[in-house]
Design goal:
Elements lengths: L2 H8 L3 H31 L3 H28 L4 H11 L1 H17 L3 H25 L1
Helix pairs in contact: 2-3, 2-6, 3-4, 3-5, 3-6, 5-6
């Protein structure tokens, strides 16, 4: 285990560690159930292959979105870099993320709203556990 992670978890009382472990397990199960339900829904419409294509395309799409936000912000120096980062995360980030999901759905043969729904559900699968963990603290 990483030394910094071991140092952080080593200082945590066993009860708190057990509670957080249960929380993480429940969040992983919730994401898994969501993915299985979503796959089942698309399989009923004979679109499971297209769903899988867009779902797998979400990984490089997330990397491209991150690059579209972080790289230009890092190219700017000083306090303007933070302003550029915020501007990019609110404008270019969603455009790249949902635009590439729409394109992947178009290639896979999905309707625009289906491809964008897959993108939104993937985004929610990442954001909801993080927001819940923040509220639980």
């Amino acid at each position: 285990m990483n030394a910094s992670l071991n140092a952080m978890l080593g200082k945590m009382p066993p009860t708190i560690l057990a509670i957080w472990s249960l929380f993480v397990l429940l969040m992983v199960l919730a994401v898994l159930v969501t993915i299985l339900y979503e796959r089942h829904r698309y399989a009923e419409q004979n679109k499971a292959g297209a769903w899988l294509f867009v779902r797998l395309a979400s990984l490089p799409i997330a990397a491209a979105t991150t690059a579209a936000v972080v790289l230009p912000a890092r190219a700017i120096g000083g306090p303007e870099a933070l302003a550029a980062f915020y501007l990019l995360i609110l404008t270019a980030g969603p455009l790249v993320y949902f635009g590439l999901h729409w394109l992947a759905g178009l290639v896979a043969g999905l309707a625009r709203k289906e491809a964008l729904a897959i993108g939104l559900s993937g985004l929610l699968m990442v954001l909801v556990p993080v927001l819940l963990a923040n509220r639980v603290q």
